[in-house]
Write a structure and sequence with these properties.
By secondary structure, the chain is α+β, with helices and mostly antiparallel strands. It has 18 helices and 22 strands. The protein has three domains: 5-45 and 220-297 and 429-504, FAD/NAD(P)-binding domain, CATH 3.50.50.60; 104-184 and 193-208, no CATH class; 301-423, no CATH class. Bound molecules: flavin-adenine dinucleotide.
Length: 505
């Protein structure tokens, strides 16, 4: 049989993964990427000698022995890469000097919390025992498994999972007698107070087990190693090649139009933003009511959508790497009233700043409409507003780190409009869960589209779940489906230092 061809739209992690696995299985593939580099959201940018990392806080599958690590090995992302494991998940500080340090060592965390509030010993034990239970399995690896494998693996913690799914961080915190713990606890997981406890417990368990870590070099370097693996497998990435249309004949995808030129293929995989794939590239023709409802309900304000970074001529190696700081006085930034800020101090990776210097970043929630309204009216207004936000954030940092304002050598502000411009993600959004479909996380949301053949979607929008593990598993799964339809056995290879190891799934 002649070699079958696949066109992939988007060189984010999902598109690159799909490309690697398709090449491993004998398909001839090309990726069209709108940006000038691969990585998508898994990216970083260099400013005045500092690297601002736009993505990874925790990479799941960071240590050998878990299923996800094997996938990263297949993609050439972890071989020779140092992983950094921090001693703390975060540190929460009140304005009057009280400190909750969320140690990743669960026993140490339990001792510390009991010292903070002996009266809460029972609730603290319930919490830390919950984390210990989740530490017995790596829930992040479930994404890399078939539903049956995942069910078998998750079965031993099904009861624990059910219990901790029903309660959010802020609800759990209400049980503490100590007023500081009651206030601080809801912020311990990226300051997302309303997420279910099981998510946080999994993060804590993963950090404890060292299956969640930071890949040294950061997000773009990580993505580049996968792009490199793809090209070594014979794939080709066309950067600055924006796909405007997916060509369809008789309800079969047959190619794409990129930068005005037509490219034909046997199969099309879109790893690009879901909204533009479905409503722009396909003109909405294959969107049913369920899909329309989902996109109509897009959130207006999004966490972590406004990133304010500073490169500072200051050694901050003794500072916590992640900090939630309750402000002495509440402030308003843009349209948000803040009583605390989350600060990230990138002191754990010396590749991100010159020696003795540090990148410090504050992430805020943001509303796309607000920022989109500014450049449309006037580009200078948009830039002024970014400067105003940066100045307001720096005034806050000055209170926590006196003298820092005078040490700033680089300032960078990224808004939802920036994200949209560089990654194509509609309104700078990331995927959200499908209302009323609790199993969409397992079954996916739009892995294929109604009535359209020869076309797959992969990545966060196909799955309605964010995260690098989702992106990889999604790309891998699409190629497994293509192999199945073509009557082929799916194969994946791992490049070890000395040899290429092959396995069949
Ligand atoms: C601030 C932040 C922090 C995060 N932290 C973590 C973390 O700690 N751990 C974790 O696992 N995940 C994290 N994530 C989530 C993770 O980054 C994403 O879920 C994942 O990278 C999505 O990958 P993707 O391939 O599905 O999509 P994307 O990365 O969005 O890739 C889509 C690609 O398609 C391209 N494209 C779009 N339209 C077109 C077109 N018309 N033509 C050609 N190309 C096109 C884009 O340029 C892009 O390269 C974070 C995300 C953000 C924003």
């Amino acid at each position: 049989m002649a070699q079958r061809s696949i066109i992939i739209i988007g060189a984010g992690i999902a598109g690159l993964a799909a490309g690697c696995y398709a090449q491993m299985n004998g398909y001839s593939t090309q990726i069209h990427e709108a940006h000038d580099k691969p990585g998508g959201l898994c990216t970083a940018w260099k400013r005045r000698g500092y690297t601002v990392d736009g993505c990874i806080h925790h990479l799941a599958g960071a240590s050998p022995g878990v299923e996800l690590y094997r996938l990263w090995e297949e993609l050439g992302a972890v071989q020779g890469r140092e992983m950094v494991f921090c001693d703390t998940l975060t540190q929460v500080e009140s304005a009057d000097g009280q400190v909750l340090t969320v140690y990743t060592d669960i026993d140490r965390l339990e001792r510390h919390m009991k010292q903070l509030s002996p009266a809460d010993a029972r609730l603290i034990e319930e919490y830390t025992n919950g984390a210990r239970k989740f530490a017995r399995i790596d829930l992040f690896s479930l994404m890399a498994m078939t539903p049956l494998q995942a069910a078998r693996k998750a079965w031993p913690v099904a009861g624990t999972f059910a219990k901790w799914s029903k309660v959010t961080l802020d609800q759990f915190a209400e049980g503490f007698q100590d007023p500081f713990l009651r206030r601080a606890f809801p912020t311990v997981q990226y300051d997302f107070a309303d997420i279910p406890m099981f998510l946080h417990l999994n993060f804590l368990a993963g950090c404890h087990n060292k299956t969640l870590g930071w890949p040294k070099g950061g997000s773009l370097s990580f993505a580049r190693s996968i792009a490199d693996r793809y090209e070594r497998l014979g794939g080709r990435i066309h950067c600055r090649s924006r796909v405007s249309r997916i060509l369809v004949e008789d309800n079969r995808a047959v190619g794409v139009i990129a930068n005005g030129a037509e490219h034909k293929a046997d199969v099309v995989i879109s790893a690009a933003d879901g909204h533009s794939t479905i409503f722009d590239m396909l003109g909405g023709k294959f969107a049913d009511e369920r899909i329309k409802r989902f996109y109509d309900a897009a959130p207006r304000s999004v966490e972590m959508a406004l990133q304010v970074a500073f490169g500072v001529n200051r050694d901050m190696s003794q500072e916590p790497q992640a900090l939630v700081w309750f402000l002495p006085q509440p402030v308003t930034i843009v349209d948000k009233d803040l009583d605390r800020v989350s600060i990230e101090v990138y002191n754990f990776d010396d590749t991100l700043a010159p020696a003795g210097k540090t990148v410090v970043k504050v992430m805020l929630s943001a509303c796309y409409d607000y920022w989109k309204g500014l450049p449309d009216a006037d580009r200078a207004k948009y830039d002024d507003e970014k400067q105003r936000v940066a100045a307001a954030v720096l005034r806050l940092l000055e209170q926590r780190f006196p003298g820092i304002s005078a040490q700033v050598e680089m300032t960078d502000v990224a808004t939802p409009v920036t994200t949209e411009r560089f990654t194509g993600n509609w309104q700078g959004l990331q995927a959200w869960s499908v209302p009323g479909e609790p199993f969409a996380m397992l079954k996916g949301f739009t892995r294929t589209l109604p009535r359209l053949r020869n076309m797959y979607m992969v990545g966060q929008w196909a799955e309605s779940t964010i995260g690098l593990p989702t992106a990889v598993a999604s790309g891998r799964r699409a190629v497994q489906s293509i192999c199945r339809l073509d009557g082929k056995r799916f194969r994946a290879t791992t490049l070890s230092e000395y040899s290429s190891v092959q396995r069949e799934d």
